[in-house]
Structures are given as C-alpha cells and as structure tokens.
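Subject: sequence -> structure tokens, single chain

Hey, anyone have a minute? Need the predicted structure for the following. Not urgent.
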Amino acid sequence: MLEALGLGGSEEAVYTALLAHPPASAQELAVQTGLDDAESDRILRDLAARGLVAVATEAGMPGPAEPGPGRPPVRYRLTPPSVALAPLLVEQRNAMHLAETAYAQLSEQYRNTAAQTAGGVVEVVVGVEQVAHRFHQLQCGAQRELLFFMVGAPVAVPREDSDASESSALNRGVDFRVVAAKDYLDSHDIVQEVRTAVTAGVELRLADSLPLKMIVADRERAMVPLDMSDSGGEPSAIVVHRSGLLTALVHLFEREWAHARPMYTSTGDAAEEPADDQQPTKEELEVLALLLAGISDRRAASQLGLSIRTVERRVRRLTDLAGGGTRLQLGWHAARAGWL
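Reply:
Had a minute. Here:
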C-alpha cells in the first residue's frame, strides 16, 4: 500500500506493525514481522532518519537514540502520518506531474515528426511477442475508450492475457465496446467468458460477420492483424496512428456497432432453480440471451454444451412464462419484465 510513497515491502511491514503496537523495539517488531533483529533495527534507523518514526521512552516521551548499560532497548513510535507522509505524497504528485508533462511533449513531438512521413502513419509489427506487446500497450494505455472487432480465435494474444488487460481497463473507468462476429461464440467457454465480461461492464453486440479484427484505443491508435501468409506464417499487424485511415476505421466500427444486435446476459440475480414457477432460471436466461442476439437454437445448443431438445424445452417454458405468443413477443416481455 505504501510502495507508491517509496517504502519497500519490509519497510511497510515494520511501519504497519509499529502502527498496530506502539511503542516497540526492533526486537519486538522483528518477531511480529518475521525479520531478523539486525534487519528490523536497520529499517527502524532508516525510517527515523526519514522522519517517519521517532525514538520514544517507555513513557512515550522522546528518549536517547542509543541504548546504554542498564537501559532498556530503544523503542520507537510513529511520527503522525499526516505530518510524515504528506511530503512524500507531494513529492510523488510532483513527479507524476512532470512525467505527464514529458509524456504530452514527447507525444506531440512524435506526432509532428511522424506526420511529415507516410511511415509515421502506419507501423508494421511482426512476431508473436511484438504483436502481443503492442496489443497490451494499446489496451493498458487507453484512458477513455476501447473499441474492438472480435473475429475467430486469438492468434498472438492468449485469452487469459487479454482478460487481465480488459479488467485493468474496466477498473480505470475506460468505456469498453465490442462487436463480435457470431462465429466468435462457437465455444461454450467463450460464452461463459462473454457473460462474465458483460456483467463486468463490457458493452457487447453481435454481427453476422466482420471484415477484420481490430482494436482502437482512445481514437488515437488502432491495431489490425495482417494475413500471416504475408509474413512467412508469423503473426503480424499494423498499428495505425492518427490519420484519415484511423478515422475510417473508427467510422467502420461505429457503422457495424449501429447495425449489430446487443448481447444481453443475466445479471446473476436469477437463481439456479427459481423460487417460484413464474420466474426463469439462470440457465433459461442464458438461452434467452443468445436467442435475442440472433443465435439459432442449434447454435445456442452447441455454444452452451446442451442438446437441441434442452434448448427447445427452455424456450417453450420461457414462452409460457411470457404468456405464450411468438418469440418476438417473448423478447418484448423479457425486456418489460427485466429478465435481462
């Protein structure tokens, strides 16, 4: 927790132990933290030199800095954090401000230089490691918005790595919009991951097909995979910087987004088995979410790992709960009843 203020793991352990049991000696803190006596003593002296702790007598008043014959071990107390940590916080804020200023200046300088050459607009990246590295740079560096086209199986970036970057972006408050081709969901595991992502805040829509894979970060940079046959079978991609080409890619996304079907998912409040017969189960809502996204019964069965009979039975029960009628009426009732 205090690493951002310049304290290492052992220093933070001693600091928080002293916070919980003041005043204390180096030997007592060593027992509490699992450090040896010499290391605990060294850390306390360093913290004292930095003004984070102070020497105290048994009575809690300032005392001698060194133990003497017949004297008890030197004991320490915390300097009030509001006094001791405030300068460190100001120092870190100033350092961050300088870093942000340097970042803005370098970015502007790069754009001005790159704008003078065609090579500055499109950057070719070749190799699994390089493609994955640039992907994570785009996703982890986004501050406002991420736009995705999802097509087929991942090639250079494993799903678990992409999920970690996705969680980081959502935690930062980044808007996350995804258009996925229907064949992207041709796996039960993917359907589970999609439900988790939508519940976490990802906006997802489905299209019958998409022309390419793509990620766009803050409408300033985009990455599009290339045909592997063009690079000797090795994964490759182009990174597009601010230009007319990037604007065209953003417009392509917005057009596909406008025509794609929203992918709903249950909120997790539905029970595995309904409390009464008039409410759908979680499993029934999974089927309904896929049907409303335009997935056929047979494909929904495949994606959920069910038989076609099971899917049809769940659809019939949902229709009965909605009062009968067509599937269009079922969708209308589901929206009105807040099922999804």
